[in-house]
Amino acid sequence: MSAMTDSSAGILLAVCLGPGGIPKAVVPEAEVTEDGLVGDGHRSPRHGGRDRAVCLFSAEDQARLVRAGVPCTQPGSFGENVLTEGLDFRSIRPGDHIALGPEVRLEVHDVRSPCDTLKSLDERLPNLLQGRSGFICSVLSGGRIEAGMTVCRVESPSP
């Protein structure tokens, strides 16, 4: 197992799946494979795929949107697969590795680009999400995830 890169581990608040589109529904647990969460679908060919297998979003950014008047307070409202709390999203960059519990390792592929589907939640979206839209990740090692697991940034293996 890789070492944590800092002491600010977070917690996995919710696991979310859906047939495609938003919102995604909270589920008790999910199996993560290199293709993403088993049972999660995508309506657009621009969503999903191995480099975009898992979408991470932070409860802190969700709370900022709620304070701005966006009416979605439920996990999965923004189409995320994993809602976290306590993980410092401001320090995460593409290429970083994220551990979800003891088994699952993700590599941050890119900052999530919010799409126009979000306008159905609030006309100011996706603009309000700029800079706080979460991350899309590829799966380095799969396994089971559930709410309550630790989430942290981990050291990337040396080349």
> What's the CATH H-level homologous superfamily?
PK beta-barrel domain-like
Please give the radius of gyration in angstroms. Answer: 14 Å
> In one word, what is the shape?
globular
Q: How many distinct domains?
A: 1
Q: How much helicity do the residues have?
A: under 10%
Low-confidence stretches: none
> Which oligomerization state do the chains in this entry correspond to?
single chain
Please state the average pLDDT score: 85
Looking at the overall shape, the CATH architecture is Beta Barrel
CATH class: Mainly Beta
**Sequence of strands across the biggest β-sheet:** 1-6-5-9-8-7-11
Largest sheet geometry: 7 strands, mixed, barrel
Number of strands: 11
Portion in beta strands: 25-35%
Helix-strand category? mainly beta
Please tally the helical runs, counting DSSP H or I stretches of 4 or more residues.
1
CATH topology: M1 Pyruvate Kinase, Domain 3
Distance between the first and last residues' Cα:
16 Å
Helix and strand string, N-terminal first?
Answer: EEEEEHEEEEEE
